[in-house]
């Protein structure tokens, strides 16, 4: 901490006291007020135990820079200045030559012309019209001549820089203000005029500020103007640790830091502590009102408005607080009237211009909103809210290239604000530049989606492009944290999309899970119920298919076993038709055997075999109709068939002695028939033979 702040706190307090005197006698009220607040914050530092001659020197420094002969003119001019009679004050010290009265003359001249300009620009379209700047031309010439002769001190050079800045001569103004800061480091107004001219951190770090301890306050303030909140917050914390822990200004600035970081609760807590320590403070109360508006704390807003009116109802901050109160009550026209009243009191009041533009947007008055936002940009070109509002206004009137331009500027001012990125993505999407849109949405998710809609926008865009898998992945990420989603309708849309996707993929568990979530939405309830019915129907249909498939498999297994047994029997039954014909008439063979009494007649056997061969086709034809109804062998036929067929030998090739082969065949058949006759009745044997022939004919 010693490296950060090397000055002793008693010396700091002495410098603050001296700065208060110098700024006060020159009429620099804002610098005097700031220095006095910082001085009061060091109340624990005691520097009053000093020798008596220091008190004399302290009283003398109040008149330092004023010639004794000019005391009368100076005191008269200062009294006129205090009651805002700037022309009379400038005229009273027009002939003075000492530094303080001379500065007072030039400063009163500037204030008088600035007051006339601002009074006439409230209803004008542009705060910086060329004809409005014409009055400062002669003052600029006077200051330039005095600076050339070396008659301007640090305060005079500060005024020279202010006039150059009012005429948009920013480079020259920056040089003059830097010179004034180095010459008069306690002049806080010079730091405030210099800060808007710095547009990037690199330039800020390269500036030569003289190494005074006041540069820490300037650096922190500029970091906040550049929305580098973490850097500014670190400096303020270090300043508090160095001894400025009771400073009201630092507490207010830290509340602004948390406001910019969207840490609303912490910012409200700091503002409440600030009002407790200084209950009649109206500075920054408009920012506190904005925080209450965001949290929709209507009761606290009403109390704050009544308190501000009781303190000073003609302060611009008071009018802004009342306007916010009527805005949260949706009385936008009354809110606009109070913002206009604030601008009557201070035409350069930035918050009033921006908030009035918001109110015109609520009333769908796009042209008036654009004018308000443009004036806000003229007051402060780093106000991202005004640039963002211009983008929204042109988006409503479907001028997308204009809105893209303004959204880009807002994004440059707030590169890590997801709202700017989402706005850019939506505009790119409307211009059919989908690749840029996807990049913006992904970056918005990476930096932290404030509104919680970037992932939904990304999913919708992928769905629009036909990339359903990526869209589903984005929808899943979006729907994971239901509490983070601010737009419930978008959340239910994501649920419904996922439910339909999984239903098409036949993943009914997930589809039903997301469909049930949509039952809480009035708009999606009917669609969700219909989808749940479809899922239930398809589930039941699948169950029936599974049951039928199981039955078919069981039947197939049983029939396959029977068919295997049937095929084995068929293999054994495949014999030539001649053998089947010989076995076709077992009864005749037995009768012939018994009637011949053991004598075999070769000619008779041959003629009988021929008749049996001729009768085989007829039997096969008679058995043909029964084949279509026969699905498999029965248990009885399977049991009886081997007893008949296993004894039938196969017939080799016919030899020249065919009669001997026939005789051998006849003898074998006679033996087989005799065994069958003794085992079964004759009728059962005939039926068995008929079924055997039918089964053979299937092959």
UniProtKB/TrEMBL annotation:
PANTHER family: CELL DIVISION CYCLE 16,23,27, CELL DIVISION CYCLE PROTEIN 23 HOMOLOG. GO terms for biological process: anaphase-promoting complex-dependent catabolic process; cell division; positive regulation of mitotic metaphase/anaphase transition; protein ubiquitination. TPR repeats lie at residues 248-281, 316-349, 350-383. It comes from the Eukaryota. Belongs to the APC8/CDC23 family. Keywords: Cell cycle, Cell division, Mitosis, Repeat, TPR repeat, Ubl conjugation pathway. Residues 580-699 are annotated as: Disordered. GO terms for cellular component: anaphase-promoting complex. Residues 12-255 form the Cdc23 domain. Residues 685-699 have a biased composition (Polar residues). Residues 587-610, 631-680 have a biased composition (Low complexity). This is Cyclosome subunit 8. The keyword Nucleus does not apply. Pathway: Protein modification; protein ubiquitination. Transmembrane segments: none annotated.
